[in-house]
Amino acid sequence: MKKIVCVLALLVSHLAFAEHHASVAPVETWNCSLNEGKSMNDIINVSKAVGVWSKSKGLNDAQWIFIPSSGDLSDQGRFVLMTGWGDWSEMGKAQQGFFGDGEGTQIFADFNAAATCESRNFWTVQSTYNHISD
Prior knowledge:
Blueprint: H1 2-16, E1 24-34, H2 40-56, E2 61-66, E3 78-85, H3 88-100, H4 105-114, E4 115-126
Antiparallel strand pairs: 1-3, 1-4, 2-3
């Protein structure tokens, strides 16, 4: 049933944004805090493990970690982990493999050992300009 709901959600989202397909991409964010005794190095290691898995599957994706440097700094271990995919199909393949088929079970266990997340969200992003060069 979960697979059917996921496929339907992706299909509806894809159809809703089909007109702007080239300029809109899906992303997922996890809003988290480090668990006691853990550091950002633990999160970076999890991210690298996701990257190795993703590359082995030939996925078109990227991942970023946002760490606040101003504003509310009361939680020094707070961060946002964001994964983005080239298109809806790539996101679907990644979600199905990592979560649905259980290929990411150990990586996700390592993530949960390192951090506690208060929310997980899916977004669409649209680039209006990019002056950053590789």
